[in-house]
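Structure (tokenized):
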């Protein structure tokens, strides 16, 4: 592997009795997230005996394995060999990813913390809407709630702090922002991030044929619409609020 962003990474750590964590950075970046997604896909393609879980976080890959079939040192050797095969920080992202364009109401009483977030980012509300709606963000990882994506990374101007106190609840479909990331809520829940947009996108539909709509590596763009248009879209499409989806070419 050549030219990593930080020569200390990647790092392989043992997690408990049956876990291994491969970490590509101690900070979020496009490159470290790219590496984690590409390496995760490569691990899955190896079909190593004894591996029964492979999952990603913002900049790491977690493997859970059966110690009766695969010893820690043997797995570490396999991982080291695979890490040496390419520069994972510049690897191609996995095939089969999707791009979603999602109608979104920014601000108004539906998403009342846009003005505060925009001010912290050094923008007017209209500038913030232009900036956010132009961003094509990646599902960096899925977590916290079923099917819930952490999206980004946004520009440094959106490296704004969390709220000092929790908002008691925001609805499913809420778009929230902090620390250069967006989160698209899949359920009603409290949050310490600022609620800046509202969508009709339901990323988790229990009981559905495919209950989780997004996968890590998918991309999204949040297109501004009026409240009237938003209501019409949600009535017509109660599951995705008028969102359009297409596959990203490999």
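Design, position by position:
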């Amino acid at each position: 592997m050549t030219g990593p962003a930080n020569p200390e990474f990647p790092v392989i750590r043992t997690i408990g009795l049956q876990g291994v964590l491969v970490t590509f950075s101690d900070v979020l970046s496009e490159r470290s997230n790219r590496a984690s997604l590409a390496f995760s896909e490569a691990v899955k393609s190896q079909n190593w005996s004894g591996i029964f879980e492979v999952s990603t976080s913002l900049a790491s890959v977690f493997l859970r394995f059966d110690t009766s079939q695969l010893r820690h040192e043997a797995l570490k050797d396999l991982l080291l060999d695979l890490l040496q095969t390419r520069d994972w920080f510049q690897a191609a992202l996995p095939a089969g990813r999707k791009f979603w364009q999602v109608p979104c109401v920014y601000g108004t009483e539906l998403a009342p913390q846009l003005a505060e977030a925009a001010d912290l980012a050094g923008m007017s509300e209209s500038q913030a809407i232009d900036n956010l709606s132009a961003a094509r963000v990646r599902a960096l990882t899925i977590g916290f709630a079923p099917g819930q994506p952490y999206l980004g990374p946004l520009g440094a101007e959106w490296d704004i702090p969390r709220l000092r106190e929790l908002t008691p609840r925001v609805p499913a479909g809420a778009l929230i922002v902090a620390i250069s990331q967006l989160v698209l809520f899949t359920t009603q829940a409290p949050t310490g991030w600022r609620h800046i947009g509202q969508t009709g996108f339901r990323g988790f539909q229990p009981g559905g044929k495919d209950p989780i709509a997004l996968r890590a590596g998918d991309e999204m763009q949040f297109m501004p619409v009026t409240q009237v248009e938003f209501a019409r879209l949600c009535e017509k499409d109660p599951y995705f609020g008028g969102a359009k989806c297409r596959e990203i070419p490999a």
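Reviewer-requested clarification: The first strand starts at residue 11 and ends at 15. The chain has two domains: 11-90, 98-247.
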